[in-house]
Amino acid sequence: MNTSQDKVTDLKRAISKYVAQGSHISIGGFTVNRNPMAAVYEIIRQAITDLHLYAHSNGQGVDELIGAGCVGKLEIAYGGNGRFAPTCIRFQQAAQDGAILIEDYSNYQMTLRFLAGAMGVPFLPTRSSLGTDITDRWGFSEELRKDDPKLPDDKLVIMENPFGNWLDTSKVVLVPAINPDVTIIHVQKCDRQGTLRMEGLTFSDIEQAKSAKYLIVTCEELVDTSELREYPDQNQIPFFHVDAVVHVPFGAYPTACYRYYDYDPIYLNEYAEYAKDDTRFKDYLNRFIYGTSNHRELLDLIGQKRLKSIAADPRTGYASGLDRR
Amino acid sequence: MNTSQDKVTDLKRAISKYVAQGSHISIGGFTVNRNPMAAVYEIIRQAITDLHLYAHSNGQGVDELIGAGCVGKLEIAYGGNGRFAPTCIRFQQAAQDGAILIEDYSNYQMTLRFLAGAMGVPFLPTRSSLGTDITDRWGFSEELRKDDPKLPDDKLVIMENPFGNWLDTSKVVLVPAINPDVTIIHVQKCDRQGTLRMEGLTFSDIEQAKSAKYLIVTCEELVDTSELREYPDQNQIPFFHVDAVVHVPFGAYPTACYRYYDYDPIYLNEYAEYAKDDTRFKDYLNRFIYGTSNHRELLDLIGQKRLKSIAADPRTGYASGLDRR
Amino acid sequence: MTKKKMKFDYSPREMMAIVAAREIKDGDIVFCGTGVSMLAAMAAKHISAPESVIIFETGAIDPKLEEIPLAVSDSRIMYGSSMNSGLADAFAIMQNQSTGQHVVGILGAAQIDMFGNLNSTTIGNYVNPTVRFPGSGGACDVASFVGKTIIFMQQEKRRFVTKLDYLTSPGWLDGPRGREKEGLSKGGPVAVITNMATMRFDENTKEMYLDGYYNGITPKKILANMGFGIDISRAHEIPPPSADELRILREVCDPQRLILG
Amino acid sequence: MTKKKMKFDYSPREMMAIVAAREIKDGDIVFCGTGVSMLAAMAAKHISAPESVIIFETGAIDPKLEEIPLAVSDSRIMYGSSMNSGLADAFAIMQNQSTGQHVVGILGAAQIDMFGNLNSTTIGNYVNPTVRFPGSGGACDVASFVGKTIIFMQQEKRRFVTKLDYLTSPGWLDGPRGREKEGLSKGGPVAVITNMATMRFDENTKEMYLDGYYNGITPKKILANMGFGIDISRAHEIPPPSADELRILREVCDPQRLILG
Prior knowledge:
The complex is a heterotetramer, with two copies of chain A and two copies of chain C. Chain A has 13 helices and eleven strands. By secondary structure, chain A is α/β, with parallel strands linked by helices. Chain A folds into two domains: 11-122 and 179-309, Glutaconate Coenzyme A-transferase (3-Layer(aba) Sandwich); 123-176, Defensin A-like (2-Layer Sandwich), CATH 3.30.30.40. In chain A, strands 1, 2, 3, 4, 8, 9, 10 and 11 form an eight-stranded mixed sheet that branches. Chain A has a three-stranded antiparallel sheet with strand order 5-7-6, covered by helices on one side. In chain A, helix 2 runs parallel beside helix 3 (60-67), helix 3 (60-67) crosses helix 4 and helix 10 (265-275) crosses helix 11. Chain A starts with 10 loop residues before the first helix and ends in a 16-residue tail after the last helix. The model of chain A has no long low-confidence stretch (mean pLDDT 97). In chain C, strand 11 and strand 12 form a beta hairpin. Chain C is an alpha/beta fold. The two termini of chain C are 12 Å apart. Chain C is globular, with a radius of gyration of 18 Å. Chain C has helices spanning 12-22, 36-47, 87-95, 139-145, 178-182, 219-224, 243-253; strands spanning 29-31, 53-55, 60-61, 83-84, 103-108, 111-112, 118-119, 122-124, 129-132, 148-152, 188-193, 197-201, 208-213, 236-237. The chains are: A alpha/beta, C alpha/beta. Chains A and D meet through helix 4, helix 5 and helix 8 of A and helix 3, strand 9, helix 4 and helix 5 of D.
């Protein structure tokens, strides 16, 4: 919550100011699209650990945070990354090794939980997951829940419909609100005050943003206020939710950013190869993340030619005809 | 729910097909803006009575439906119309005469009730109205509720927070979902299949539209599918919710339609004068509504000069400098 | 009474708008209704709180307001805003745990009681009312959720009542623990601004007391225009509008005098 | 095995996509995941159900799909769509009382039981799993809400199990009254499509039975690749893909063979 006129800062400062060891965080995007990767890499560089991460299907960003050892606890719906990883590889490894504590929800439930936080209500109802193990098996123990004031006492609550059989519904699952300490999203356009515009699908970014105590926005373009205010219908989040604005071109790379660039299939395929082996994954981290001091340097490793190959076709918004094998 | 390619029809047919005596309906817009007035006038011309009307603050449309005797029961948050009627005059009269049965909610509660219907859940929670007479006094008796399967057994339910004090919330008010038989909205642009675009504020139109069993859309412009699909981010309602598309220029007149025309202060001021007296209000109905066979004829009564005076300034989207005294 | 005024003369409505504007600070998110509350919010932004933000329940965030809107759905609030959305989003801002406590809501009503509870629904029996008012609109929501509310009232005996005919919008309910008992937000009414005076609420009892009176008005006259007694021992005279405040209100906010009359 | 195929030769994956496409009718709203389910939905729209509508959980409604998406967040589903929104809106379509029963969801999983319940979460202990899969994603939501689900599976003993290690997405739960008892929607799984066969669920018992087998596959072979027995008395051979079906699948839907391999 911040009404000031100028929130522009750099990524190092934004991450060190708002993300700390043990912070409860969420990141925007979905699998291979619009993950705030520059911010993810900066968290890894700053070696922030023991994060409590709330994810629906954030894919690439989640897997890299887990792989780099930043995550202690994870509430998640889906740890996959489209065709590039039917199950995210470092996520799978960490789960099987017991290296992180995981609690499962569905995608809609995670979205409703962010929405509840955004709306300021303690829960929202759904019929999803009645009769399943999502309602029966809890990843976090009652003790752990009691010890952490940032966690609700119950994973979820099943309730009879208090309005009888209204809407042909006998029971509902109530899922508890999430209010992350910080949410980080990457958007196409933002002004210095935080008025912003996402293009293409918004996933759950809007709910994640509004539910957070602090909101960091990275953007492809830092634009004039007048440009965004000419079409206010297309802006998605009240600017006073925004605490930091960071201009990071290619800030979602190697995931896609609609109308700007596509995902990089070479990077994602190579990542999958690195991720399969602990030693090679360390090489990956050393070369691409610890070995670069910021996102610009990481992009330099990739080179202009690769970046040009994924440039969005102005007609379709993605790299039409890109070789994606 | 309708996936067909071409839903274009005329207003007479759309109203007679979907709106019947006793129907539960809702209309879009808010006070002096984007009310589906052409459709409202057609309902009045067809003399459809005993409607159960769900309203938040729909203002002009609600007052005219009540004044014309179309409404039997009303669930409403606000019966006012901005500076033109601090309390809507025919609404006030009907309430004081006991001519209609009224049940009160707040604007947010009505919106949540439509949202619950749109989401397919029997209720949504809020902290609004705890400790007030909105929770204590019911407009519809328990008997009436039991007799009408389209009404929930309870106006609302107050519940302890099942997640303890999660989100510093001890109690919530659960408000029941609404699924109107039919919702009518007026929008700026629509194609033959029902892909549509509202410009400016959307009020609760989206929730009202998605919660309805049938949805009638009137539009300023009937446009090509390709035009709307070039910027899908700006379209608001999945087309398969739409059952009928009707092309009605000035379909919101005398209320405003952003980027097309302003409200007509002369009409709204004159309406307030007519509405103050039963006999004069009959004159109003006879002249403007029963005396015209469709919206085009009503607009002809107003004349091109008046319509030109409220034409939207392309820069601001309203009639800049309009004399609004 | 003539509408032409001397340069430093001013109407009660102008005074009310300016007194309310003075309540608004940088960092406040101001929820606006129609009429004088809108003028107050606009005046604050131009005078003392440029980093306050005006929002409307209909979904507009920080619109340009080149011309004064006559309703909260007026197209004039859709132009030049930071964002246009709808009711669901607007009220969520007020109920949201991070933003809601920064919202200052400006409300009006037909009746008020000593704890700042409001009636804008009915006089007489609820089902067969003597007088029907518009109802809550967003008022009950705002009063339930936000950090602070400011209430505009006409100073009349029939409006300041010991018992409301209908409690539409919660103030402090029955006293200091009222809101907490019912489960409402920590916030509540902080000021009642009338055509004669400003009342506030005692920190401990949450009962209304006279905080300030306008030039030419006595505390006695104020009490004579209320249906219940209040503490007047803390009252002081409120400074009249400055030339600058009046100029901005008249020339920038409402040059057509659509609200000022 | 060579990837070059004779004109009328076809892979099991191609057969699966076409068999699933045949299940989709005009008026259906098809919920699509990644991979072969997306191909099936695209093929249906081009072959037999032009008035079906493809939606994605990420919020895209009826996109143009000029190129095949590799994930449900692929920018290729944002182009030429009727509308772009987000997850909250997409799942609401499926839970909505008017639209949800018209949705056909296409799902995959690691394990399935005889009532069509699915596991896509863990093998072994939940907290310390032997194998971790991605989890529900939107699968549990879809399976809870929609009118019909179609399930893609590989025909393997370890996948068709008597008891799931974790029930991620509800099928018919424990039989004909299972969903009603728990409070789920009336819908449920209607077909399981594997690389050898199509199973359906008995109208009365909701138990899986063999409905059809592919050319060259025997019911016996299918049973040998399942961890539980099913009724095979109703089984018939499924017609192979037509030349036209194959042409559309290969040339229109996936010319780069990104999914077909």
